[in-house]
Each structure stands twice: as structure tokens, then as C-alpha cells.
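User: Please fill in residues for this 520-position structure.
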């Protein structure tokens, strides 16, 4: 090819651009081919998880119990399987059941740990109540005689009265007759002295004083009117009569309460009763008096539980010289109750605990490892202290536990198929006959959950059965060579629970407890 032809070729725009593109691709391959090696499994910060034979394992992000030896679809939900990964640090000190997480992942998930220690726990109990009148200082003012209300000297509820004050004047024809009998008996005193004593006693029973009786005898004047005096000082809390009313002996005219001392009545839940005792000191505040704190001691705990509110009344007595505390004011109290029987026990924050219904678990950080690793630990809890719990057993003094982000750690455990809050046992390696399925089973409560899972696990070949109350889905793992979904569904129906394959017999269903009746 001569020079002119070459020039013509290079003058062609398409040929020139094509050559530039080829040269660019060649240079890019030369520049970045070295970095490509770093993306190989040997240079990557993660390694694919393999089984004991060195075979790569694949799992489902929605169903971590699924483990396959090759990529594909999840047999339960149909999602693409993903490779199971670990940190691949090679740290021999890490427990095989522990969850390994990089420091970057811990920082992103905001996982925080705290070292636990023993202490003497103090339970903080919150009580809510109201101010009440002291029942011992409340009295009813009654009429001592039959008659008509001629004059009221106390006219409204809330009025203050003093002991000895005239509160009402009564017109009584019977009183008039009794005074006349007194005068007639006085004339016959020398002949029938007993009659005079009887007439005087009759007036005394109607609350006339000896001075008033003597005045009647001396003056010879009688009157059908009698004044009723207050027998106590206090506030009128109830007015029962009006002027012109006819009343009988013993009728209540007014209810009067003395507020110089009041009761603070708190409601204590039955779960708090073991920690409350007569004589315990407490501090309380009133919404009506912000910024002021009062203190007192428990003087009485009602021995009878209210069947509706499931509470008992706890009483605190307090002086009220300035009458600042008024009935029905709201009060909030705090009781610091030392738990002597749990002295020198481990206390952990509530945020560290995961509840599974039957189990309480925490994640403990494994010490002396280069890569952070956490292992599930089942614990037994004591009483609640508000934002923390006493731990009876399961962890030791000095253990470092996850106090924030425990659910994130547990989610990682579920994805890796390790022991978690949803799986009490470490899964066994997958076999060629392992089956997985989900069936919808109807139920309502924890009793239903126990019954459904027990019925499913009673079938030979079932390795695990977990019923989710919210979605009503029964998650099953079983040996397909030993049983089938049909057999498991039939066993659940025999226990009294309808499912997508079989309906429970009416006789079995009707025998279920009322809280388990799911049919409308």
C-alpha cells in the first residue's frame, strides 16, 4: 500500500476514531490490570463461607436457615441466593458460634458495649395518687329532734364552721310539749321527783344543756325553737337540707371535714407490692404546687386488691397547716426500695436484653480477639429496676455485653444461620432430604403458639417449628424423607387450629380456652 492510500485512510473520520478507541482500551487494560488482582478472593477483606469440605455455601437473605452448595433460588420465597460471608480474619481465638463484625460495621450500626459489675440494686417505684380528707377528722352533723328547718346559718358547700357555732334553728312541736311536761313535773317535784328527773333527761337527749333546762324551770317560759350547734370545726363538704325542710331525728344536715391533716392516697400495682412496706419513706410532688417536694412515710397499705384496676391503695398521712393541700389534687411519688435479697448481683441496662417470649438473651463480647466477636448468652432475669434489670444467672462479673445495637448483632446471626433469638439451637448442616416450608395457621395468643409448635414438632421428622403470631405463618424445617407438609398440617388441625390445608374439628375447637377462639 503506497503513502497516498495510507493518507486517505487516516483522513477517513471513522477509521481515525476507531483507532483512537482501540488505543484507549489497550491503555486502560494496562493501567488497571494490576488492581484487578486485589479484587480476587485472596485480596478481599471478606471470604465466602465454606462447609467442612471446603464447598462454597449460599443462603437466602429472608430465610437464613436455607444453605445450598450452589447459587439458585430460595425454595421458600424464590429470591436469589446470596453467598454467605464472614470476616475471614483467621483469628483462632474466636468461638465458631460467635458473630464476627468489622470495626467499620460496628461503628455504622452504632453498636455499644458496657462492662457489667455487681452492685446492690435499688428498685425505683413510681406511684400516682390524689389528696383525700382524713376520714378520722370528718363528721356528720345530725338533727337530735323531729321538726322543721326554721333557719340555716350555713348556706353553701365549702363554708368554714367553728365548733360550737349555731348552724341551724329547728321548729319542733315535740320540744314544746317536752318543755311543758318539764314545768308540770317541776310543780309535782315534792310528790313525784322521778317525773322531774325523767323530763330533764328527755331534754338532755335532745342536746339541751343543763343551763338551758334550768332556765326553762326558773323562767317558766317555753319555746318550740331549738338551735343545733356544730360539734367540730372544719369545711362543709356536703349540704343536705334547705330552709323549710321537715326532718326527723338522726337526719344528716351537713358533712364537715377538717383539712388540718390530710391523706395522700396512691395506687400501687400488684407487681410493686412485694417492694412496699409500712414505714417506707417516699418523696412526692403535686401538679398544683410545681417546684415543691414533700416527703412522708407509708402509714397503711390496703390488704384488698381492686379487681378492676389491679391496684391497692397506699396511704401517706401529712399535716396541712397552711391548707395548701386540697382534696383531689394529683400527686406523683417515688419510692426507692433497696432489694436486700438481691444484694451483690449483676445489674444490666434494659436496652441490652432481647426477649423471645420464653427466653431472655444478651450478646457478650468475646475477649482477647483481634476482630470484635459476639456470642449469644441466655440469662435469667430478676426484678425490673425501671431502666435496668437484676440478672440472676447467665453472665459473670466483668463480662462486656452489647447495650446498644443488640438487635443488629442478632440480625447478623440470623443471616449467618447461627444461634439467635429466633433460633434456639445451632442449625445442623443441610442434607439432601432437608425440607423447608411455611403454612398459614390460625391462632390468637401465646397459648396458641405453644400448642401449634408442639403439635408440629410431635410429627416425626420435624426438626424445628416456629409460629409467628402476627403473620400467622408456621415456619417448618423437616426431613422430607420422613414426613411432609400435608402430615404436619393434619397434626396441627387435630390440635384445634385451622390451616390452609385442613380445618380443625368443631369438637376440638370448642374445647379450646376462650382466649384461643380465633373463629368469628
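Assistant: Residues filled in for all 520 positions:
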Amino acid at each position: 500500500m503506497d503513502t497516498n492510500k495510507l493518507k486517505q485512510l487516516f483522513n477517513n473520520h471513522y477509521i481515525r476514531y476507531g483507532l483512537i478507541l482501540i488505543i484507549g482500551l489497550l491503555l486502560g487494560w494496562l493501567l488497571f490490570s494490576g488492581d484487578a488482582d486485589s479484587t480476587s478472593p485472596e485480596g478481599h477483606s471478606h471470604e465466602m463461607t465454606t462447609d467442612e469440605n471446603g464447598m462454597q455455601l449460599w443462603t437466602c437473605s429472608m430465610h437464613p436457615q436455607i444453605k445450598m452448595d450452589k447459587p439458585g433460588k430460595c425454595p421458600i420465597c424464590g429470591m436469589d441466593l446470596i453467598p454467605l460471608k464472614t470476616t475471614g480474619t483467621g483469628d483462632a481465638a474466636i468461638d465458631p458460634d460467635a458473630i464476627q463484625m468489622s470495626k467499620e460495621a460496628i461503628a455504622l450500626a452504632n453498636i455499644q458495649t458496657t462492662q457489667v459489675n455487681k452492685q446492690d440494686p435499688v428498685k425505683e417505684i413510681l406511684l400516682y395518687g390524689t389528696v383525700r380528707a382524713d376520714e378520722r377528722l370528718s363528721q356528720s352533723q345530725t338533727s337530735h329532734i323531729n321538726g322543721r328547718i326554721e333557719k340555716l346559718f350555713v348556706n353553701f358547700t365549702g363554708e368554714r364552721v367553728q365548733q360550737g357555732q349555731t348552724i341551724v334553728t329547728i321548729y319542733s312541736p315535740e320540744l314544746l310539749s317536752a318543755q311543758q311536761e318539764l314545768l308540770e313535773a317541776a310543780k309535782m317535784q315534792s310528790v313525784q321527783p322521778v317525773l322531774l328527773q325523767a323530763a330533764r333527761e328527755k331534754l338532755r337527749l335532745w342536746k339541751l344543756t343543763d343551763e338551758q333546762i334550768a332556765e326553762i324551770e326558773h323562767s317558766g317560759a317555753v319555746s318550740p325553737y331549738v338551735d343545733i350547734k356544730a360539734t367540730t370545726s372544719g369545711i362543709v363538704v356536703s349540704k343536705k337540707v334547705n330552709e323549710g325542710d321537715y326532718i326527723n331525728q338522726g337526719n344528716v344536715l351537713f358533712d364537715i371535714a377538717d383539712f388540718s391533716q390530710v391523706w395522700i392516697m396512691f395506687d400501687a400495682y400488684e407487681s410493686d407490692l412485694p417492694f412496699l412496706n409500712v414505714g417506707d419513706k417516699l418523696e412526692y410532688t403535686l401538679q398544683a404546687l410545681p417546684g415543691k417536694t414533700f416527703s412522708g412515710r407509708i402509714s397503711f397499705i390496703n390488704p384488698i386488691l381492686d379487681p378492676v384496676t389491679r391496684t391497692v391503695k397506699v396511704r401517706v398521712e401529712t399535716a396541712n397547716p397552711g391548707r395548701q393541700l386540697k382534696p383531689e389534687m394529683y400527686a406523683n411519688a417515688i419510692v426507692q426500695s433497696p432489694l436486700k435479697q438481691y444484694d451483690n448481683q449483676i445489674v444490666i441496662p434494659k436496652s441490652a436484653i432481647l426477649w423471645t417470649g420464653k427466653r431472655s438473651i444478651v450478646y457478650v463480647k468475646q475477649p482477647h480477639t483481634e476482630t470484635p466477636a459476639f456470642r449469644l448468652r441466655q440469662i435469667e432475669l430478676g426484678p425490673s429496676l425501671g431502666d435496668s434489670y437484676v440478672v440472676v444467672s447467665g453472665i459473670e462479673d466483668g463480662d462486656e455485653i452489647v447495650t446498644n445495637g443488640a438487635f443488629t448483632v442478632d440480625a447478623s446471626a440470623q443471616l449467618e444461620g447461627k444461634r439467635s433469638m429466633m433460633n434456639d439451637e445451632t442449625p445442623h448442616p443441610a442434607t439432601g432430604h432437608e425440607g423447608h416450608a411455611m403454612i398459614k395457621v390460625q391462632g390468637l395468643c401465646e397459648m396458641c403458639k405453644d400448642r401449634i409448635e408442639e403439635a408440629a414438632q410431635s410429627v416425626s421428622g420435624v426438626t424445628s417449628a416456629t409460629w409467628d403470631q402476627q403473620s400467622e405463618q408456621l415456619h417448618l424445617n423437616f426431613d422430607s424423607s420422613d414426613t411432609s407438609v400435608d402430615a404436619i398440617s393434619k397434626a396441627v388441625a387435630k390440635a384445634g387450629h385451622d390451616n390452609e390445608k385442613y380445618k380443625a374439628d368443631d369438637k376440638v375447637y370448642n374445647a379450646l380456652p376462650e382466649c384461643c377462639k380465633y373463629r368469628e
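For context: Residues 32-48, 85-90, 427-431 have pLDDT under 50 and may be disordered.
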